[in-house]
TrEMBL record:
The chain crosses the membrane at residues 7-29. This is DUF748 domain-containing protein. The lineage of its organism: Bacteria, Pseudomonadati, Bacteroidota, Flavobacteriia, Flavobacteriales. It comes from Flavobacterium zubiriense. Keywords: Membrane, Transmembrane, Transmembrane helix.
Length: 517
């Protein structure tokens, strides 16, 4: 009996000792973490919380009602603030933390985090400043990060003004590692992620906003629902705010899909790649008030803009399906703007890239001009060609000239008659000039010049103008008339203006020249 009592007392003593040890370790761990948060977190970080819960056996820590702030080194004000209902760290590796200044965590969970970022308070160091004496964690490795019901606001310098807002998101990241002492722009690597975000707004500039209903993304795919560029003003209001010409742009795309999307942070320069993409039913409205002074700043061609991106970019193929594009110009005060539109726009873009070994970018477009006349356009360029060399060819067929009168009448004070049966054009050029050829088959083509501020025909100007225009192409071999394209680019205008003056050059030469090949 005495032996049993001794065993019982021994076992009870061991259990009490274990409990006391765990209690002491819990107390020590809590004290250590509190001191760690104050002393060993990098000096440009700040953390506050309502209370802390620790399970020393499982390596779990929970911070409730926590606030984390980050500032640039040697800066006075914080540029990032995160307030969260709770931060839960599970499966902390103590040995790496104590011996190697590496914090390894199995999972990190943030509930209802609200992030505010003030970019104008972030100071970017011009030199790499590595202080080997700076104590604290060197590397943070987290097997799983889970953010639930988060929100983001990126602020402008003006008070209470938001540049970017993300109303709600859930994010999971697997296999992440952060080098906290790195001076690189992208010190983060990860294996995979899953993002679900709703109600995104980007305040682009003084004139429009970008809005997105939802984004679903992982390392393989990106899906965007209802991408919009929304003007802040109507057309008349915009003109009142402008000193220099600027397009009114309204865009809505119900669906955008990118396949095998990858963000490569491992290189010194960020790389964004995808194998394919789809843009479904884009609707683009462009309006230009020509009564406002021209904007004479130089406009780079698309090849230049792509080449000068600050990150590597490559998408093998993008398809545009069932698009609609309209373009209107206001030329005469108090009159309706002349409008052109393209319906049933289907396009495929191959090799959108700025890589050094990039293949030639090719764009193939089919649409219906004014909703009736089939139009094709093929355009290609080499992004690495510093002269911005390009090639364009295309065609228009079965166009009743009268359908262009809603554009011709207000803009040219003229009406067109006749039928363009076929038109083919082909030209190549660079950033300064282009040359090519055109051929047209048409019947009964002529212009009627209107009297100023009237719908009546100016018979004299109409007669003089049509003297120089061949009425049809039937007198020529195979019923085609031929012309040359010769154009010089105005660098203050867009590529599409360059495209138009090439086509216009060919039309004028074909209609008024000798028509021979």
């Amino acid at each position: 009996m005495k032996i049993r009592n001794k065993k019982f007392i021994a076992i009870l003593s061991i259990l009490v000792l274990i409990v006391l040890t765990v209690f002491v370790l819990q107390w020590y761990a809590k004290k250590y973490m509190e001191e760690f948060i104050i002393e060993k977190i990098p000096s440009n970080y700040s953390m506050k919380y309502a209370d802390i819960d620790i399970n020393i056996l499982l390596g779990n820590i929970a911070l409730n009602n926590a606030t984390v702030k980050i500032k640039s080194k040697d800066a006075q004000q914080y540029h990032t603030a995160i307030k969260t209902e709770s931060i839960e760290l599970n499966g902390i590796g103590y040995r790496d933390l104590l011996c190697n200044e590496i914090l390894t965590i199995k999972s990190l969970q943030l509930k209802n985090p609200k992030l505010h970022y003030y970019p104008y308070q972030q100071i970017v160091s011009k030199k790499a400043n590595i202080n080997t004496r700076d104590k604290g964690i060197k590397t943070l490795t987290i097997k799983k990060i889970a953010v639930t019901n988060g929100s983001v606001a990126i602020m402008k310098k003006s008070a209470d003004s938001i540049k970017v807002a993300l109303s709600s998101y859930n994010l999971t990241i697997l296999g992440s590692s952060i080098n906290l002492k790195s001076t690189e722009e992208m010190p983060v690597i990860f294996d995979s992620f899953q993002l679900e975000a709703q109600e995104i707004m980007v305040d682009n500039n003084d004139y429009d906003k970008l809005k997105i209903d939802s984004i679903s993304a992982n390392k393989e795919d990106l899906k965007i629902t209802n991408f919009q560029i929304v003007p802040k003003y109507n057309k008349k209001e915009l003109s009142a705010h402008l000193k220099k010409e600027r397009d009114y742009i309204k865009l809505k795309i119900p669906h955008i899909i990118l396949k095998e999307l990858d963000f490569n942070f491992k290189q010194t320069r960020l790389a964004i790649t995808a194998t394919s993409g789809e843009i479904v039913k884009p609707n683009l409205e462009v309006y230009r008030d020509k009564l406002i002074a021209d904007n004479l700043t130089a406009k780079p061609l698309y090849s230049t803009s792509l080449r000068n991106l600050s990150f590597d970019f490559n998408i093998d193929q993008i398809k545009i399906k069932k698009g609609y594009i309209s373009y209107a110009e206001l030329v005469v005060p108090d009159k309706k703007a002349g409008k052109l539109f393209f319906d049933e726009v289907d396009a495929t873009v191959y090799h959108i890239s700025n890589l050094k070994k990039a293949k030639k970018t090719e764009i193939k477009i089919k649409s219906k001009l004014m909703g009736v006349a089939p139009l094709t356009l093929n355009w290609s360029f080499d992004v690495n060609n510093s002269a911005d060399a390009f090639m364009v060819n295309g065609s228009v067929s079965n166009l009743d000239a009268q359908v262009l009168n809603p554009f011709f009448k207000p803009n040219l004070n003229a009406l067109a008659e006749g039928t363009l049966q076929q038109m083919y054009f082909n030209f190549n050029g660079n950033s300064t000039a282009s040359k090519g050829e055109m051929k047209m088959k048409y019947v009964d083509f002529n212009f009627k010049i209107l009297q100023k501020n009237s719908n009546k025909i100016n018979k004299f100007l109409t007669a003089v103008g049509n003297i120089f225009i061949r009425k049809d192409s039937k007198a020529d071999p195979k019923d085609f008339r031929y012309g040359e394209i010769d154009a010089e680019r105005d660098s203050t205008k867009s590529f599409f203006n360059y495209l138009w003056i090439n086509v216009k050059s060919g039309i004028v030469n074909t209609l008024t020249g000798n028509g021979k090949k």
